[in-house]
Amino acid sequence: MGYSSHFACFSGCGETYPLDEVAYRCRRCGGLLDVVHDLDALRHRGPAEWKKLFDERYMRTKWPYGSGVWGKKEWVCPEVADGNVVSMFEGGTNLFWAERLGREVGLDDIWVKQCGVSHTGSFKDVGMTVLVSMVSEMRSRGKDIRAIACASTGDTSAALAAYGAVAGIPTVVFLPKGKITDEQLVQPIAHGALTLSIDTDFDGCMKLVAQVCERNRIYLANSMNPLRIEGQKTIGIEVTQQFDWEVPDWIVVPSGNLGNLTAISKGFLMMRELGLTRKLPRLLIAQAANASPLYKAYKSGWKEFHAEKAAPTAASAIQIGDPVNAPKAIRMIQELNGIVEVATEEELADAAARADRTGLFTCPHTAVALAALFKRVAAKEVGPKERIVVISTAHGLKFTGFKRRYHAGELPGIVPRLANRVVEAPARIEDVEAAVLKGLA
Question: Which domains does the chain have, with CATH numbers?
Fold first, then answer.
């Protein structure tokens, strides 16, 4: 059976493009594009057959189907030949049963999807593998693409640089000066990307990279490119697969540019459309209070959406005031009966520390999701027996400076309620023993 997909205008004006065409917005109306699959062809396999096929491939070694993304290739990007797939065995990340944390906040069935336990340390890998693979396919067809570029708050640049290095395709990254961690900055440098530090914020970098790409035969890799969404939608599919094809009650997603919540929702909708599931989860979308245009639109009853100038936040990857995927995200939230919540800087910092004390090692963005969840649990909107999956977007090791400053009491304006200070002691048994016994008292 031949499977196929193409770009289509998300606004519904009817415009379409093949996937090997360089297009990010509809040329007729300017709307966002979406990847649309031939669902009639996909229905030639029944739900049980798809589940069996996906389970047989999952985390195996047959190229490229062991990848959590490419094991679902027919649903993701069937146009790419296997030999042009650029993969680092992405996906297949752990579902961590946060039993102790759940017990503390009154939840019996809370799980954390550890998307940051990946090659570059964030969920961006599962989207970037599709985009870079499609560029590899396009170049093999003779398309004149000299490089791939992105604007980033850290994680996108790391993923693009790594996958570009594997493929041997030049990459360029635009980073807001002084707004990413050293751990994030070193990743594109190490992978050989042309790395630009620009004196602006993410939104400013996004405007510049779009112009540079348009003028110079450079392919744009930000999440306005719907190929990224196709890889990221496998997160929701994989979560369901890990629960033996049972859909959770809630998915909690920290959100900035709104691509990941759009993608995850798309995965759940596709499973239902093809009969693998009947139920849809509810969405809890979490934003940092300092960068929360979606939350404000939600509180207005979706009457209006206004971009804003995002204020600094420890959750730097979601410090975005003008999210490109807002139209898609709002439609998905409405379709999945979602709610939106915010977390202040103090709330997210304390949530990270609280989670870490139960064995997690939480990035600030996942902490935003946890803080938002705690608030909705306290408001009794999320029930104690419901199954909740929190999407952890990055590895905590990318944000050690944030954690160190929290425990040292050095985060401006934040009283660290759960600080764990380092205890210094002279190298004498009496002093060391006294420090140990005092600490354990």
Answer: 95-121+228-407 (3.40.50.1100)
